[in-house]
Every structure is written in C-alpha cells, then in structure tokens.
Amino acid sequence: MRKSPRRSARKLLLVLTLLLGIVTLSGCVASAPVTTSDPVGVGLGVTVRQLENVPLVITVKNNMDKFVSDIRVEIIAVDGKPGIAPFALWETPDASVTITAPLLPGKTAQVKLILQQKEPAPIQSYPVDVKVTYKDGNGVEVAKVIKSAGIIKVGNTNFLSTGIRWIIEALNSLVHDYAIAIILLTLLLKLVTEPLTRMQFKSTVDMQKIQPQLVKLRAKYPNKEDAQKLNEETMKLYKDNNVNIFSGCLPLLVQWPVFLALFTAINNYSPFNTAPFLWAPALSMSSSALPLATRFIMPVLVGLSTYVQSLTSFVPGQDRSQTAMLTYFMPLLMGYWAYGFSIALGLYWALFSFFSAAQQYMVIKRLTKGMPAPEPVAKTPPKKK
C-alpha cells in the first residue's frame, strides 16, 4: 500500500527535525575527560568557539588504595605559559576548584570551572597544566604538578552565528543594552521570516479547505487494494485546488538553520557576562545557577510561550488529535531545556514564541476570513472480505 504524500511529507519533516535536534544537542553533551595515571589523576577538556565562555569540566580520580580528602586543583599554565591567558576568570577569585569530601579508592568526582574570553582567543588547542594538592589517607598534605592534564580547544564560529553576533553588537551599540538588542533581533527575525510563516499557514489553510473532499475520497476507496487509486485521486485534488503539500514543510526547514545559528551565537556568549537582565546578574548565566527564588522564572516563561504558540497554530476545524501530545509535551520539554540554557537564549525563545503566536493568530484569521466551517462527512467503514 502506498502512503499518502501528505503523511510522507510529515514523516520526512519529523526525521529531519530530529536529526537537526541531535546535531544541536551533540554540541552540548560532552563525555568525561580521561584522567591521568597519577595517584590523584586529573582530566579536563572542552571545545568552545571564539568569544564563548569556557565551561571546564574537571574530573578527579583517586588511583590509590586509600581515601584522599581536601582536594584542590588549580590551573597554573595554559599552552606552556604561566597563568590562564588568553582566557580570564569569571565568577571565581582564582582558577581553582576544591573537593572537600573524602574520595574513596577508585572513585571519581567532577567539578566545573567557568572561564571567559574577554577577547577572541586564537583558534587552536591549548594544553593545560594543573597543580593538585590533597591530603592522603594518613593526613599528609601532598602537592603535585601535572603537565598537560587536558586540552581547551578553541574552534571557529560558523558564518551564520558570526553574522548574528555582528547584528547583536550593532544593535547594542545603538541601544547600549544587550537585552534590548536581543528583543530587537527577535523582532527583526520575525519580520524577515514573515513571508515563510504566511506560506506555511496558507498551505495549512488550503489543506483544511479540501478536507471534506479528502474524507469523501477515503470513504470512496477504503480498502488497501484501492490505495493506488486513492493516491492518484488525492494528487489530482491537490493539483485542481493549487495545493502544494511541501509548501508547509519547507518554511520550517529554512528556519531551522537560523535557530541553530542563534543557539551557537548567544547561548554561551562571553560579552553577556557583564549584561544584567531584571532578575539575572548576567544574560550568560543559566537559570540553574540562579537563586531558588528566581531560578524557574525563565523556564516557566519559555514553557508558557511555547504552549501559547502551539495553541495559536491551529486552523479552525483542523484535527488536533495527531498533535495533542506535542501541544503539552513540547512546552514541558522546552521549559526543561531552558533550565540549563542561558538567560539570553531563554529570552530569545520566549519572545520569539510570543511574537509567533501573535503573528500566527493574525495570519490565520486573515487567511480563514469568510471560510465556511468544514461539514462533518460520515466515513464509510471498510468493506469486509
């Protein structure tokens, strides 16, 4: 049995969306670095782009047969030069982390140290030397320098993200506020993508207008043996009514690279470190790092905006049964992700979703003006053999 073109197009869009999502998140998930073979081994590593914060995950492993305590790991040299240049401190008085709890034999612990780039670091790999101090099982304090305990790799930024950062900096030079610059950028992107949104919903409305005829065709050809004839008649119906089944999918695929570029451009952008926003000391901070009283504000806004956008995306008379789960699941998922994203990215997503909801409402209202409500068509049950 041949599948309907519309259903095939939806499945293609879903597969591509999942693949793009995996590509996006693959840059966010890092495996634990391999530790050195020293009595107290250390491993660290991260890959960032220019002008991004450097979230170093430092792994410490006890390779001895007795517990150790009061562990301190300090970065003492980068690329063979004393200090942490070309990086800089952020939120910490020095480039060190501590583990006060005892670490049992063979066990590991992880701590995070966030550095920043006040100026773009040259694109290369930077070996990191550390000094480890700890108390062994007998209470004796030990200090050891570990050469090349890990690597900080600075890569290039793709041209889309570079362009978005250029626009943000240009807007910030005008308004002198990064938060307002993000708001203006969001509005600008909505204006640029307005024709795509209109095309997307025009396709949806056109499909909705011929739904009664599609139902009649399915009732006329209910059996598997009629699948080929059903597809032929369906394609003829699309052609006669100037309906393009792919025009609703292509705008989404065009907008995905823009979202991915925004993700890489603003989620970890170092200049946001000095840009406060209402309840957040810095736009670059994640909601999870905020005090409990303000920790969930942005995730709730992101979830709420996603839900509102979903509600306004339906055309009158459209069957919501196939997307009912996503209507409630996606807001929860986006709110969960926003908990770990920067305030800047959460702000963009919430604004973009609210703006999209208003835009969708107006576009659908204009496109469906004067369109009669679809009449229910009784379905003929399949004939029994």
Question: Would you kindly provide a brief summary of this structure?
Answer:
This protein is α+β, with helices and mostly antiparallel strands and 385 residues long. 44% of the residues lie in helices and 19% in strands.
Describe the structure.
The protein is of the alpha+beta class and 385 residues long. The chain folds into two domains: 5-25 and 160-367, no CATH class; 40-156, Immunoglobulins (Immunoglobulin-like), CATH 2.60.40.10. 44% of the residues lie in helices and 19% in strands. It contains ten helices and nine strands. Strands 1, 2, 3, 4, 5, 6, 7, 8 and 9 form a nine-stranded mixed β-sheet that branches. The longest helix is centred in the last third of the chain and has 25 residues, at 343-367. The protein starts with a helix and ends in an 18-residue tail after the last helix. The model is unreliable at 1-6, 23-30 and 376-380 (pLDDT under 50).
Topology record:
Elements: H1 5-26, E1 40-49, E2 54-62, E3 69-78, E4 81-82, E5 88-89, E6 96-99, E7 108-116, E8 125-135, E9 141-155, H2 159-175, H3 178-192, H4 194-209, H5 211-220, H6 227-240, H7 250-266, H8 297-311, H9 324-340, H10 343-367
Parallel strand pairs: 1-9
Antiparallel strand pairs: 1-2, 2-7, 3-4, 3-6, 3-8, 5-7, 8-9
Helix pairs in contact: 1-7, 2-3, 2-7, 3-10, 4-7, 4-10, 5-6, 8-9, 8-10
